[in-house]
Amino acid sequence: MNIIHRRGWDMPESHATPEHLFFNRRALLAALAGTAALSLAPQHALAQRVTDQPDPNIGLYPGKRNEKYVLDRPITDEAINGNYNNFYEFNSTKHVARQAQALKVRPWTIKIDGMVEKPFEIGIDDLVRKAGVEERLYRHRCVEAWSMAIPWSGFPMAKLVEMAKPLSSATYVRMETFLDKSIAPGQKQAWLPWPYIEGLTIAEATNELTFLATGAYGKPIAKQHGAPIRLAVPWKYGFKSIKSIVRFSFTDKRPHSYWEDLQSSEYGFWANVNPQVPHPRWSQASEELIGLGERRPTLLFNGYGDYVASLYKGLEKERLWA
Ligand code: MTE
């Protein structure tokens, strides 16, 4: 039997819906029971944008390029990348850029807590000044089987872990996105597991590739990409790259991610990029290079195996793919 799977890139742009949102029965019933629908409020979004305070660190961008990380494809055009996003807090189509302008990114306070020597809070601008800014070119591959190449600016997450001083018993970092229904209409959908959560082992968090992006394309990061600070873990599926982070909690319990809570049969903690293991509903063997109209075979660990393969030793029985 030939089952045709619907894919984001097969559809007209206006109908694109992230492929990995597959409503489970409970969620669908709750949705049908009448929870709030997405409300588009572009005027509100524009009003918010003009009230944003300027970024005092704007002069630090893009930072010196770290030449160690090279691409095998051209950088994705900024306009294409900035108009093809997943940011469910605003809506679940790729067309989220306009609504995301409602996000107010200054002041922005980040909480560091849990199993650390001393919990503390730090403002985004102090954090960026302390950690510094460098530029890295990374690939980004979504589990929906599309990819982009992005010039991020920011700093290695290892620097934040160092500042946090976790206890030796801490084994994971749990990260949390902002929660504010008044600006993020997606968060009015009570059947979705807000706030958005992601987790890394401490070994992943301190891997040299793990990057906290506060900028992209040579300037402070755009709101649709997760301003003022988002994660970039280029060997993992894009959904691990949590946006607009407000909290890093160190813990000895494996964090449950947003996608696991939504569909645990399809998304797990050890998500990586393993082209040999298909997603339950579609192949992971190749990817569409957004903006180039080209398909390419997907590489194991998205081509970053030299940096991260050791993190997966002994985990062969885990569902590394999902
Ligand atoms: N973070 C939050 N808070 N909310 C989201 O919906 N989507 C994830 C990830 N981080 C998401 C998120 C997914 S599925 C992907 S592919 C990337 O963000 C998309 O990042 P981009 O829009 O900058 O390409």
Labels describing this entry:
21% strand; 13 strands; globular; Sulfite Oxidase, Chain A, domain 2; alpha+beta; single chain; eight-stranded mixed sheet; 17% helix; 322 residues; binds ligand MTE; disordered N terminus; five-stranded mixed sheet; 9 helices
Structure notes:
The protein is an alpha+beta fold and 322 residues long. The chain has a single domain, classed as Sulfite Oxidase, Chain A, domain 2 (Alpha-Beta Complex), CATH 3.90.420.10. Helix content is 17%, strand content 21%. The protein is built from 9 helices and 13 strands. It has helices at 25-32, 42-51, 78-81, 97-100, 124-131, 157-164, 202-205, 258-262, 305-308; strands at residues 64-65, 109-114, 120-123, 134-141, 146-156, 172-177, 197-201, 211-216, 219-220, 230-232, 245-251, 286-289, 294-297. The strands form 2 sheets. Strands 1, 4, 5, 8, 9, 10, 12 and 13 form an 8-stranded mixed beta sheet that branches. A 5-stranded mixed beta sheet has the order 3-2-11-6-7. The longest helix is centred in the first third of the chain and has 10 residues, at 42-51. The chain is globular and about 45 Å long. It starts with 24 loop residues before the first helix and ends in a 14-residue tail after the last helix.
Please specify the SSE layout and strand pairing.
Blueprint: H1 25-32, H2 42-51, E1 64-65, H3 78-81, H4 97-100, E2 109-114, E3 120-123, H5 124-131, E4 134-141, E5 146-156, H6 157-164, E6 172-177, E7 197-201, H7 202-205, E8 211-216, E9 219-220, E10 230-232, E11 245-251, H8 258-262, E12 286-289, E13 294-297, H9 305-308
Parallel strand pairs: 1-4, 2-11, 5-12
Antiparallel strand pairs: 2-3, 4-5, 5-8, 6-7, 6-11, 8-9, 8-10, 12-13
Ligand MTE binds at residues 85-89, 142, 177, 196, 225-226, 238-239, 241-244.
